[in-house]
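INFO batch 0412 | record 1 of 1 | parsing
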Amino acid sequence: MFAELYGRRDGVSGGKAGSMHLSAPDVGLMGSSAVVASAIPHAVGAAMALKRRGGGRIAVAVYGDGATEEGVYHESLNFASLKKIPVLFMCENNQLAVHSHLAERQSYHVVEHASSFGVPGRRIDQGWDMIAVREATEEAVAHVRNGKPYLLEIMTARYKEHVGIGEDFHFQYRSRAEIDAWKERDPLIVDQALVRELTAELVREIDAAVAHAEQSPSPQRADLLTDVL
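INFO prediction complete | emitting tokens
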């Protein structure tokens, strides 16, 4: 992945896809897309193929709350329910689309809306609780493996600006207090003992990945038209 971010030949897509279009099907990542909601129908299609092949595998579509406003999302829910496709819809809901609040954009509730298509679901308000999210996901996966789609809505918070590492509270579309309330329950902030325990290994893995990327060769002129259909 880091080699791909560096635009190098050892990247998962030969350095041609970049951060917005990562794909590694050999490890189960069919692909991502910069177009909002566009990966959702891809996941449904992949799940349909998995159903026909048998074997109990499922597909998972991960997206933000803004993606539920796109037409293709509604079509995907309908098709998945109609064909009983083994796909898990996983919505990470931070209640923001750049600077626009949920109340300004949506007249529906995500889980209730999915149920209107016959897709059952569950909302997890404790998005900071990794154990609660894991347990809910395991239950959802078990449901999907029985041959029906399912939706998980996981409430969360965006600490930084929409794109980048900066703060944006000066725009006054949200308050620092509401973000601090999430941080007070975030185990990666509160549980410093856990952070210290994990940090050394995480840094080692990241440093190794960066070193691999920096040593990877750059694409050459002969690579320009390879992998192009």
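INFO post-check: The domain at 35-190 is CATH 3.40.50.970 (Rossmann fold).
INFO record closed
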